[in-house]
Every structure is written in structure tokens, then in C-alpha cells.
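Below is how a single chain appears once it has passed through the pipeline. First comes the sequence as given, then the structure the pipeline wrote out for it. We keep one example in the README because the format questions we get most often are answered faster by looking than by reading.
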Amino acid sequence: MEGILWLLLRQIYNLDDILLGMYILCMKREIEFTNEFEEWWNNLDEDEQESVVASVTLLEELGPNLPFPHSSGIKTSRYGEMRELRIQHAGRPYRVFYIFDSRRVAILLLGAIKADSDSRFYREYVPIADKICEQCLKEIREETVKEKTHAP
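Resulting structure:
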């Protein structure tokens, strides 16, 4: 009877799956950023940058598992996987649009400060983030093709 129980437990709780899950949760994600994000970042003061760094660090640590209220999906984007970092600094909401690419790298696309009641925010910034995202993904696809064609 013990042998059957052990076999059932091994099938239900596969140690390899558990260890892989723990590795994925503990693995830091690589973060890249666009020129547009960098330009926005350079215009922030030191305190604002610290608040952004705190959220980006959470993204680096938790990756796609970063929960609400730190991150949420962008429903109006052409890219279903686009998300936003939701940052609060001095009572003001800051947003950073980002996406995980096929390499599982988080790309910070665009940052902006959102006025609390500004319903135009997403209508204005999502199309810009979509355009930046389109260009980034195109460049990554081209790099991938180039790497595959030049691989030994």
C-alpha cells in the first residue's frame, strides 16, 4: 500500500515541477528600456526616480507575476500583453507602459504622469506606447532572424 501511495504522491507533486516553479519565481527578470522611456526618466527628479526604481525592482523580481495594484493590463492596447506599472509618488500617479517580449525580457516602453481624473490619459498614451512596442518587437524579430542565419 505504501508503494502505491508514494507513486500517487509523486504523480501529483512532481519535485521537478515544484523546483522549476520555485526557480521561475526566484529568477530576476532582465529589464530593458526604450529611448522614449529614457527621455522621460531623465526629466524626473531624484525622488521621482526612486519611486520608479522601487516599482521596476518589483517587476524585476516578480516578472509577469507582479500583481495589482503594482501592475495592470492595458485593455485598449493592440498588444494584449501590454501592461502598466502603477507608481505613486507624492500623491500623484505615475505610469510606465511595458511588455515582456519573446525573450522574456521586460521592456519599459514609455513613462508618464497621470492626472487623477484625466480620462484622456489612456487615449493619448496607449497609441504612443503601441507604436513604440511595434517598433521594439520588429527590431527583436529582425535580430532573432539575423542571429539564426549567422549561427554556426
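The chain is about 50% helix and 20% strand.

See the next section for the split statistics.
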